[in-house]
């Protein structure tokens, strides 16, 4: 796979405050990457570094082989960017706005206007001033401008915050389509939950440092988070054999036993529990959510 | 160059959409018409060409109004877009920061030129409609008055960009812009006058006076329009203009320098600024 974005030992300091500290990663064509972190963790700063809007204090940033801060903007021609809470001039209509950006990117106006349909901006809304747009419509217009000129790299800063679920879904469908065409899509988000099944790779950023980088399965494996198993017993006063197997079971008044089980012990335990099916009347398995995973990585970094 | 024109086009589009163009043109036209009708009353039958009187009144109007309009348009140009978040997106496009500044400048200049030309043109049209005959010399003076008014607008637009590039907040930029307007339009001349009075008739070296006049773009504009031809007799500038050894080309060059320097510095500061 060819590398489209390269960050090597990149740091950014403002005075004494380190916003990004020694971040290194490479992004490849056809890859969808999620940049996850709190508000203020340094996600937007990383994106701005890739755009060349700010210069790194240390390290090297290369976008399509160019230094984005000095290059003659050839790379920017093939780069789409959707800022966090995108804003446009309120007085101009959606069509006028997109035409303006299309001219700057040297994109054919007719080709640009096809994007309205692609992002699902209704034809009757296109000629209304942006002032009258809802948040979702503004976000669609923002996405339309990011897609101008079939970019090879898409940088989307919290693209789905504030969107309704239907819109979010169509948004991810569009990203899947782009990934098929070999576009590098980087999305930043402060929630891992909605990214399940959407991304190839997750980079978790905290306090300007990349604390985890890999697929969601990789991260799960590294984290070794316990699965929560709760069993509802058919009779209240029975103490099943498997309940004293070294795990810490809690029993509540409804006769439900619950315990946290590490991944490698999960399957043998389930086997034991289900061996005597007459004893139990219910079984719930709660896998660690992505939020748990995220919290785990943040915790481990703090203790480090 | 194409980027510059695209940005300029968008500024003009925005200006027409948010009624800036309409408002400034109507304001200038309204005041120009009022001045050209009222302003002719005190002259009675002096015998000067009526357009010359209008040139004197319109020049005084320009000195107050055009810098204010230019500063109001321009002080928001950079810091305002940064605050609204539109600059971030714009700069992610393949466009240089100097292109952004020059494009905006060109757009605002076009708005100012349109407003001045049609606003003041209304006054000239009214005079013709009233059946006055106007000599070609007066037309020339009128044309150069309009051109220099636009140039004065360019100076203050450039200064406005400089404040916009320096200020970290829109309101700060606005405050600085008002301060600059007050300084150049009101305070500077009062201070200069005070200094002349304090000198108690002692001759001020011509070189120093020239320098003091060139240091204020509104004074340069005043000399350019009121210091020559029929107009000098009607305005108080005649005395100073005779005294100062500044020819129109020097004055125009001074205004050009007053435009390019702040614009260049604004571009430089904006290019270094991190978003």
User: Quick one: how many beta strands of chain B?
Assistant: 0
Assign an overall shape of chain B. globular
In whole angstroms, how far apart are the ends of chain A?
33 Å
- Which stretches of chain A are low in confidence, meaning pLDDT under 50 for 5 or more residues running? none
Largest β-sheet summary of chain B = none
Secondary structure: helix percent of chain A:
25-40%
Mean pLDDT of chain A: 85
So, CATH architecture of the largest domain in chain A?
A: 3-Layer(aba) Sandwich
- Average pLDDT reading of chain B: 85
Number of strands of chain A: 13
Radius of gyration of chain A: 24 Å
Keywords:
heterodimer, A: 304 residues, alpha/beta, Rossmann fold, Alpha-Beta Plaits, 6-stranded mixed sheet, 4-stranded antiparallel sheet, 10 helices, B: 275 residues, mainly alpha, 13 helices, 81% helix, globular
In terms of topology, how is this protein built?
The complex is a heterodimer of chains A (304) and B (275).
Chain A: E1 3-14, E2 17-28, E3 32-36, H1 43-51, E4 58-63, H2 74-77, E5 79-82, H3 94-104, H4 109-119, H5 123-126, H6 135-146, E6 153-157, H7 165-180, E7 184-189, E8 201-206, E9 209-214, H8 216-223, E10 227-233, E11 250-251, E12 256-261, H9 263-275, E13 280-286, H10 290-303
Helix pairs in contact in A: 4-6, 8-10
Chain B: H1 2-17, H2 20-38, H3 50-74, H4 79-84, H5 86-91, H6 97-129, H7 136-166, H8 170-198, H9 206-214, H10 217-226, H11 229-234, H12 237-243, H13 248-272
Would you kindly provide a written description of the structure presented here, covering whatever features stand out?
Chain A has 304 residues and is an alpha/beta fold. Chain A folds into 2 domains: 3-221, Rossmann fold (3-Layer(aba) Sandwich), CATH 3.40.50; 226-287, Alpha-Beta Plaits (2-Layer Sandwich). Chain A contains 10 helices and 13 strands. In chain A, the strands form 3 sheets. In chain A, strands 5-6-7-3-8-9 form a 6-stranded mixed β-sheet, sandwiched between helices. In chain A, helix 4 (109-119) crosses helix 6 and helix 8 crosses helix 10 (290-303). Chain A is elongated and about 75 Å long. The relative contact order of chain A is 0.14. The mean pLDDT of chain A is 85. With 275 residues, chain B is mainly alpha-helical. Chain B has one domain (2-272). In chain B, 81% of the residues lie in helices and 0% in strands. Chain B has 13 helices and no strands. The radius of gyration of chain B is 20 Å and the shape is globular. At the A-B interface, helix 2 and helix 3 of A face helix 1 and helix 5 of B.
């Amino acid at each position: 796979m060819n590398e489209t974005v390269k960050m090597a030992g990149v740091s950014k300091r403002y005075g004494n405050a380190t916003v990004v500290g020694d971040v290194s990663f490479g992004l490849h064509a056809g890859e969808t990457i999620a940049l996850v972190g709190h508000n203020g963790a340094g996600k937007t700063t990383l994106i701005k570094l890739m755009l060349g809007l700010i210069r790194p204090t240390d390290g090297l940033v290369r976008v399509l082989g160019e230094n984005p801060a000095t290059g003659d903007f050839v790379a920017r021609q093939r780069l789409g960017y959707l800022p966090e809470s995108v804003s446009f001039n309120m007085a101009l209509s959606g069509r006028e706005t997109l035409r303006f950006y299309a001219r700057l990117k040297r994109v054919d106006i007719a080709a640009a206007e096809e994007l309205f349909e692609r992002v699902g901006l209704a034809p009757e809304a296109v000629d209304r001033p942006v002032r009258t747009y809802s948040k979702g419509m503004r976000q669609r217009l923002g996405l339309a401008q990011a897609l101008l000129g079939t970019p090879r790299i898409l940088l989307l800063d919290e693209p789905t915050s504030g969107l309704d679920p239907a819109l979010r879904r169509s948004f991810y469908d569009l990203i899947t389509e782009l990934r098929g065409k070999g576009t590098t899509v980087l999305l930043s988000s402060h929630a891992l939950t909605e990214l399940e099944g959407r991304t190839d790779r997750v980079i978790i950023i905290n306090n300007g440092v990349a604390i985890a980088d890999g697929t969601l399965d990789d991260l799960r494996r590294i984290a070794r988070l316990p699965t929560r198993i709760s069993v509802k017993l058919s009779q209240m006063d029975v103490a099943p054999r498997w309940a004293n197997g070294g795990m810490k079971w809690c029993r509540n008044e409804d006769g439900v036993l619950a315990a946290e089980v590490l991944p490698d012990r999960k399957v043998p335990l389930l086997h034991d529990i289900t061996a005597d099916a007459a004893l139990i009347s219910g079984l719930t398995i709660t896998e660690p959510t992505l939020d748990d995973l995220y919290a785990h990585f943040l915790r481990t970094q703090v203790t480090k | 160059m194409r980027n510059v024109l695209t940005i300029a086009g968008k500024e003009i589009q925005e200006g027409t959409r948010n009624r800036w163009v309409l408002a400034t043109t109507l304001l200038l036209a309204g005041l120009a018409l009022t001045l050209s009708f009222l302003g002719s009353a005190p002259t009675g039958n002096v015998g000067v060409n009526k357009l010359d009187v209008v040139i004197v009144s319109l020049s005084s109007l320009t000195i107050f109004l055009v810098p204010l309009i230019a500063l109001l348009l321009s002080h928001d140009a950079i810091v305002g877009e940064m605050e609204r978040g539109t600059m971030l997106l714009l700069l992610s496009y393949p466009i240089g920061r100097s292109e952004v500044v020059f494009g905006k400048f060109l757009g605002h200049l076009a708005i100012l030129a349109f407003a001045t030309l049609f606003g003041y043109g209304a006054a000239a049209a009214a005079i013709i409609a009233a059946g006055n005959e106007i000599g070609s010399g007066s037309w020339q003076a009128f044309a150069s008055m309009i051109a220099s008014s636009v140039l004065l607008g360019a100076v203050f637009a450039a200064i406005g960009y400089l404040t916009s590039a320096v200020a970290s907040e829109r309101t700060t930029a606005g405050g600085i812009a008002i301060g600059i307007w007050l300084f150049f339009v009101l305070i500077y001349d009062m201070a200069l006058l005070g200094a002349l009075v304090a000198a108690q008739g002692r001759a001020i070296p011509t070189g120093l006076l020239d320098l003091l006049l060139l240091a204020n773009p509104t004074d340069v504009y005043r000399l350019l329009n009121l210091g020559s031809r029929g107009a000098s007799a009607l305005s108080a500038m005649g005395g100073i203009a005779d005294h100062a050894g500044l020819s129109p080309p020097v004055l125009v060059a001074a205004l050009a320098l007053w435009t390019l320097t702040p614009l260049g510095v604004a571009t430089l500061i904006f290019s270094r600024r991190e978003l």
